[in-house]
Write a structure and sequence with these properties.
Order of helices and strands: HHHHHHHHHH
Radius of gyration: 18 Å
Structural class: mainly alpha
Number of helices: 10
Oligomer: single chain
Largest sheet: none
Distance between the termini: 28 Å
Strand content: under 5%
Number of strands: 0
Shape: globular
């Protein structure tokens, strides 16, 4: 990695940390930035997951009070998250570079659609009217759906948070703070196990990962401080436009 590539990666990861703290979508900067510095797609995905995990831990700690009363649901979904995440990570590690590269445009398109249209979808799902909190999916259905979502999370992960929030809404968790708390806790467990699997398989580009972690951590800190002064809708519009541009680029490159 050259000095110029290192600077680009550091700046991209710093920006990703700010975006993650203000409006989400940091992966749309980190994943392409890693690939642009010569990291192959599978290692870039694994490195991105590992570098973003400390931020997940910080979010979970911030939401610890909102987890009160969600112990039973969290325990069940934790098992589904760990099982699904492990399967997704193993599938990634056993995918050929060619296969994963071919899937990247489609996965970026899915993540882009989730980022751009997930907000309105969540708003509709939460508008359940009186008694919405009491209308829960059966636990076995919730477990199965979280398991499937977690496989995707272990394999790629971009847009995972929106998928989980949508699923929690269907489960009857309509309070956004409780839903975010549950998402953060499950994200720590899922990505923590996935991180351990990637590290044990030597799938991390450590030289790049250190820069990404430093950038996202400092960017998240600054983003948290700036969050109340920045219009998140404008940031989301910028991230959404960037996501569409990157998705189009990868489809063009694959053609």
């Amino acid at each position: 990695m050259t000095l110029a590539q290192g600077l680009i990666l550091l700046l991209a990861s710093f920006g990703a940390g700010v975006l993650k703290a203000v409006a989400g979508g940091g992966t749309f900067l980190i994943f392409p930035a890693l690939m642009s510095t010569g990291v192959d797609p599978i290692r870039a995905n694994a490195t991105s997951t590992v570098a973003l995990w400390p931020g997940d831990v910080a979010s979970a700690l911030a939401y610890r009070r909102e987890m009160e009363g969600q112990g039973r649901l969290a325990a069940s979904l934790s098992i589904a998250s760990l099982l699904g995440g492990a399967i997704g990570a193993v599938l990634l590690l056993n995918s050929s570079r060619e296969t994963f590269s071919a899937l990247v445009p489609a996965m970026l398109l899915m993540a882009t659609l989730l980022f751009n249209f997930g907000g309105p979808l969540l708003a509709k799902l939460r508008g359940g009217g009186p008694g919405a909190e009491d209308r829960m999916l059966p636990m076995n259905v919730s477990f199965g759906l979280q398991f499937l979502v977690s496989i995707y999370g272990g394999y790629f992960g971009a847009g995972l948070g929106i998928l989980m929030l949508a699923l929690f809404s269907l489960m009857g968790v309509k309070n956004i703070h409780k839903a975010n708390a549950l998402k953060s806790v499950l994200g720590v467990l899922l990505n923590g196990l996935v991180t351990a699997i990637f590290v044990s398989a030597n799938a991390i580009a450590w030289e790049h990962g250190v820069l990404v972690t430093a950038g996202t951590t400092s960017g998240s800190f600054l983003g948290a401080a700036m969050a109340r002064k920045i219009n998140p809708d404008r940031v989301r519009s910028f991230v959404g436009a960037t996501a569409w541009a990157l998705t189009g680029y990868y489809f063009w490159r694959a053609a």
